[in-house]
Amino acid sequence: MKKVKSFLEKDIDLSILVGLTAAVLLIAAFVFGSSMYSARNIQSMAFQIPEFGFLALAMMLSNMVGGIDLSIIANANTVAIFTAYVLNGTWAFGTQGGARVALAVLVALCTSLVFGLLNGLIIAKTSAPSLVATLGTMTLIQGVGMAITGGTSVGDIDPLFSSFGKAIFLGLPVIFWLFLIVALVLGLILSLTGFGRKLYLYGGNPVAARFSGFHNEKMSVLVFMLTAVLSGIAGLIILSRVNSAKVGYGDSYLLQTMIVCVIGGIDPNGGKGKVGGVVIAIILMQVMSSAFTIMSLSPYTKKLIWGIMLILVLGLNHIIAIQSKKSTLKKSMKALASAAK
Questions:
Q1: pLDDT at 54 over 80
Q2: Beta pairing, strands 168-169 & 172-173
Q3: Which of 155, 27, 15, 19 is CA-nearest to residue 84?
Q4: What is the dihedral of CA 278, 38, 178, 131, to 10 degrees?
Q5: Which residue range is the domain that position 191 belongs to?
Q6: How is 100-157 classified by DSSP, letter by letter?
Q7: What is the pLDDT of residues 6-26, one digit of tens each?
Q8: Is residue 40 assigned to a domain?
Q9: What is the pLDDT, as a whole number, of residue 73?
Q10: Sign of the CA dihedral 16, 46, 273, 303?
């Protein structure tokens, strides 16, 4: 038992998350039975996870450097709009088939990088809080999308591209496998590379990072560019699944990505968190979302539940943090008492 307790205490947030997820999965199986875990519903959830998952990973990165990126949804939608215009031939420059798809992906990547660079430069050069900076860029990027489309959806995209969003491999969508691969690579980068160590140090203590010789402004720009690329990938996945792009798609995802990051153990003050925790939290949220759909809850009720859930998780994290500090203090006092003897 001591070994189990020691293992659980190594990462109390992750242990609680795994326990909570297991409980929700069991309750869902008991309450909804085969309607929740049928092959059809599992495949449906696997189709929905990637677009939300990439947005959650993007929010995670911004949180890990002590910031927030409110522009991720606007980024994803506007990237999808630009890509859709290439794929329906409007901006195709005479390309066809695979060449047109390659051009569309290149346009999506460049657009994402520009949006991310804009965010990073504003935050790094003006020292503006990321909340304020990305609120401004969110409005700007939404405005760009609205000006281009006039508020209408852009469709009639190349079938070659749309087939990617529906492709199946080993019983699960290809886009789901893509999400898992990207999450794994991102987790390895953060855990094993110099960039990951610098990111944790910068997020946890920017002053210490600066005195350690890190270029804080460069790190901020790189992180928000990577955040934008992940958002752009989400936009491509959305486009490939629904065959159209429009400003305002998936607005509810913004609140959900914040909840996922908090549940997944990401410290909004920066310097703490793991990709694995966020992936588990994404699965938890998707199961709950599917349960809400089965129960035929209205979108307003869902938002109410997500909001309550965010407040409860924040409160729980605060209580855990206080208890952890008390436990550490008690251990320190015992150690001092033992040393005095």
A1: yes
A2: antiparallel
A3: 155
A4: -40
A5: 51-250
A6: HHHHHHHHHHHHHHHHHHHHHHHHHHH---HHHHHHHHHHHHHHHHHHHHTT--B---
A7: 544 556 667 777 777 888 888
A8: no
A9: 92
A10: negative
- The pLDDT assigned to 154 comes to 83
Tell me, what amino acid is at 72? I
Distance of alpha carbon 156 from alpha carbon 305, whole angstroms: 36
Average pLDDT, the chain: 83
Residue 283 lies in a domain: no
Residue 285 lies in a domain: no
Domain count, the chain: 1
**Does residue 313 belong to any structural domain of this protein?**
no
Query: pTM value?
Result: 0.86
| Structure-token pair, residue 6 | 């020691």
CA–CA distance, 179 with 177 (Å, rounded to integer): 5
* pLDDT tens column, 187-206: 999 888 888 888 888 887 77
Long-range contacts of 274-278 (CB under 8 A, 24+ apart): 274/14, 274/187, 274/190, 274/191, 275/57, 275/60, 275/183, 275/184, 275/186, 275/187, 275/190, 276/14, 276/187, 277/13, 277/14, 277/17, 278/56, 278/57, 278/60, 278/183
- Whether the CB-CB separation of 16 and 313 falls below 8 Å is answered with no
d(CA 260, CA 282): 6
What's the token pair of residue 160?
A: 């070659």
CA distance 122 to 286: 34
Highest mean pLDDT among 135-144, 288-297, 311-320: 135-144
Element (H, E) at 169: strand 168-169
